[in-house]
Amino acid sequence: MAHRITISVPDGSFAAYVATPGAGNARGTAIVVIQEIFGINADLRETCDNFARDGFVAVCPDLFWRQEPNVELTDKTEAEWKKAFALYTGFDVDKGVADLDATIQATRQLPGVTGAVGTVGFCLGGLLAFLAATRTNADSNVSYYGVGLDKYLGEASAISKPLLMHIAEADEFVPAEARARIVETLKDNRQVEIHTYPDCQHAFARNEGVHYVDAAAKAANARTLKHFLEMK
Fold first, then answer.
1. Residue in 99, 101, 166, 202 annotated catalytic
2. What is the number of other CB atoms lying within 10 angstroms of the CB of residue 181?
């Protein structure tokens, strides 16, 4: 079942999409799903709904609310890409992490949430999931092809909870040098598990995305599910 909630922060409030599991398979744990640059679109709602079917409460906050509430774009047209990049360029990462933290705390108070709360993010959300691992009390985090993540590697020593990372080896938005620096910096951190996906471009796991790769997406998603099933 899906509905929306409102989350308040010092400078306003924003909506979040919530998918809840059926009573028979509820686990008591929750996952905050962090958007790409396209807002809360069909892909993100499907992702939340899939987590709910697996027994998790899934919450996806509208992190573009300060620029434009209720953005919903796809990767199918040039006009949508142009708008998405404009929103990405205008996005304040620090405020976004603060909104994410507020979402994590609000999620802990939702009916049916009695255990751990993790995060999973894609693209821009992949960066924010990494920052959730360094700046919030999220119990576990998963980053899919985070963009700009290499600029924040100085925070890596703050990671104290499990972080799973999926890196596309042919990511057109993350240069090879940046990918190598991410792996080199994090490879010896006991809290971090890194998987790379050969010949995959950015967003290889986006539902019905233009660069979707079925085998890689299924492998990454299976690892993600296992990661969250072990969340404490």
1. 202
2. 15
Number of H helices, E strands in the chain: 6, 8
The candidate with the shortest Cα–Cα distance to 51, out of 155, 142, 169, 154, is: 142
Give dist(CA 35, CA 87) in Å, integer.
Answer: 12
> Rounded CA gap, 116 and 140, in Å?
8
Nearest to 111 by CA among 202, 38, 5: 5
Phi-psi domain of 123 (left: phi exceeds 0; alpha: psi -120 through 50; beta: other)? left
* CA atoms of 6 and 62, how far apart (whole Å): 10
Residue 167 and residue 180 in contact, taking contact as beta carbons nearer than 8 Å: no
Is 75 annotated in the active site? Answer: no
195 is catalytic: no
**Which listed residue (43, 99, 139, 171) is catalytic?**
171
Digits of tens for pLDDT over the chain (232 positions)? 899 999 999 999 999 999 999 988 899 999 999 999 999 999 999 999 999 999 999 999 999 999 999 999 999 999 999 999 999 999 999 999 999 999 999 999 999 999 999 999 999 999 999 999 999 999 999 999 999 999 999 999 999 999 999 999 999 999 999 999 999 999 999 999 999 999 999 999 999 899 999 999 999 999 999 999 999 8
Q: Are 57 and 84 in contact (CB under 8 A)?
A: no
